[in-house]
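ok so for the tutorial part 2 we go from a plain amino acid sequence to predicted structure tokens. step 1 is just haveing the sequence, like this:
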Amino acid sequence: MSDHFVCVHGHFYQPPRESPWLESIELQDSAYPYHDWNERISVECYAPNGVARILDSDGRIVQIRNNYERISFNFGPTLLAWMEENDPETYGAVLEADRRSIKRFGGHGSALAQPYNHVIMPLANERDRRTQVEWGLADFRRRFGREPEGMWLPETAVDLGTLSLLVEYGMRFTILAPHQAARFRRLGDKDWKDVNGARIDPRRPYVQRLPDGGEITLFFYDGPVARAVAFEGLLRDGGRFAKRLTDASGGDDGLVHIATDGETYGHHHRYGDMALAFALEAIDNGDAARLTNYGRYLEEHPPEYEVEIHENTSWSCAHGIERWRSDCGCSAGRGVGWNQAWRGPLRDALDWLRDELAPLYDERAGKLLQDPWAARNAYIDVVLNRAGENVQQFLDAYAAGSDVTDVTDVLKLLELQRHAMLMYTSCGWFFDEISGIETVQVLQYAGRVIQLADELFDAGLESEFLERLAKAPSNLPEYGNGRRVYEALVWPAMVDLRKVGAHHAISLLFRDDDDENEGEDEGREVYAFEVEDVAHQTSEAGRARLAVGRLRISSRVTLETSDLVYAVLHLGDHTVTAGVQPFTRDQALERLRQDLNEPFDRADFPEALRALDRAFPDGTYSLSSLFRDQQRLVLDKILESTLHDAESVYRQVYERHAPLMRYLTDLNIPLPNALELAAEYVLNTSLIRAVSDEDLEPQRVLTLLKDAQARDVKLDQEGLGYALEGTLERLADRMLKAPKDVERVSALEGAVRLATAVPFRVNTWSIQNAFWELKETTHPEFAGRSDDEARTWLSHYRALGKLLRVAV
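step 2 — the prediction. this is what the tokens look like for a chain of 808 residues:
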């Protein structure tokens, strides 16, 4: 048996993208055609690595493997929380991989823990460091059902204090970059050897002795191989990748291991998941090396050397950890002449906010909780399960008295602390511009902290915070500085119960017809809120509509509740005005109805609008107040008739002048803009409908594509590919529900045949998964039969497998 070992570590992580108020990710247009970047990256990376393909020499799928089972990995807790809710199949594959790795690697699971929300640990204060570790460990236990052996440090940012904390919580090891080692020696020797400049031998584990008398094992990954994987195209060839890993031992015994962002395998490098699967399979089936993970290797090969690290260093900043507090020169290089002078003022502003709030939290929470900071450490149990009985168990354990009447205040205090940690998520400093999506996210966390502080303490911290943000310069003239970024991108995102009420009330006017029959007193989920329609009355006058009613809102996070009355006036198109205010008594609601209905019923809409303004003196809301996903749905409904009219005009122009357009194209004469626009709009619209049709007609799609080619129309390739993928998935699901139905197998075969013929990329990954399930479950039964039904089924099955490039 070879004494050469290989371990590949993937750090799988995305910055949290959830709205701090809604606890969900709103629509992100930059991720088109997907809803948001988490969904897009999951499709490109996380899901494929759970069912990675291994191809034969002809490029056909011969095996499907769960890559996570054979590598070492960590997933950010906030990413796993999203995945559990939004991609449960991939989430299950990750958890199952850890269970299988325990059997594969002698009782050592491959999953590692991570501090909760990816803060730069050496820059965090002692309280935050401790909570980050406790929350990361609690999250890990809840998901993987065991204790972790090691913990990945965000950005591998390290100091001795952080390592001591890991040891205190039972961690045996962590992984660092080679340049983070300063010197080493054999255990028992007196003399140290300098290894500055990433000259540490990565094939050995090393002991780092700590000031408090503890020690921890450090693995320094192979820098050149990791760099080749991440940046030098090594993943273009799985066989070459495997050889590079096995050759890196240099002929000596030991561990060849690399660490990269997990997104390298599929998101940063398309088909990187397949290269990884091929390499792992080649190593597993060869005799050049054995796959292992860190826990097993450490058990079998205890350290014989000790090391001293460079403190305050990381794997992604040449200047230590300056990337997260200064304009050190590290950037993503997206803006010519840009600087990152905003980084220092941003961290200073957040540090000031955190430190101003600590004594206020201490004083208020000290009256409600036995130990405010111990309660914060334990609050992760509530974050992971907000069920009422779980909240009560937490209160029973940590409340200062036996009868807690201020439950909402307790939860608000702890939510303030949660967001005060989330605002330090490292991605806020990593990129180039303070108005970038990642930095705006941490500013929104700060905005939620300030909002809660005002509700709890009447703290009035925002003006000073904004003054400090004004010292953070933006590279974009339209923003100028961090204060203006906050005012432009944080203020509009803020939510309170009234805004939730306005969102719900406006949405009521645009419900589908099926919803109109739903009764009163019905509870609805609006992101992190429960909304109960207590009373609702709608009047119509032509295109105008008026809704007046009462609703009750409660936050599932803080349990805060509010009883509200509302009125919404829709005068057609996007002209919507809504008012929301606290409910006082039924007579007031009835008076509001009368005051608004009276001018509305006589079609005096200007007076109805003035009456609404008088009834809600604190201000009104419009369609811009809707949360983004619902806003898009409502606007789509409003635009439906407008787009129908536009399409009729475009289609009339296109159909009337199609022969002329064809003639001009044949002569290589560019189409006039008006004709080109008509052709592009009509053909793309027709194609989207055709590929999305439940009863897909491949010939109809091909005819439209031929027309588009003849007129040199620019296709919406991403949108068309995404739509056809959805149709294929529906057909595959339908087939798997009745896998013996020849017609369903045949229908999927025809759809996949179309997907191979269209001039845009169609991801058939999920269809290959469905076929693989068919191959392993239904195919054996038909393969053992010789009747006509079996022959017909097998004929379509083989054709489908050939189209999907699966070896059958």
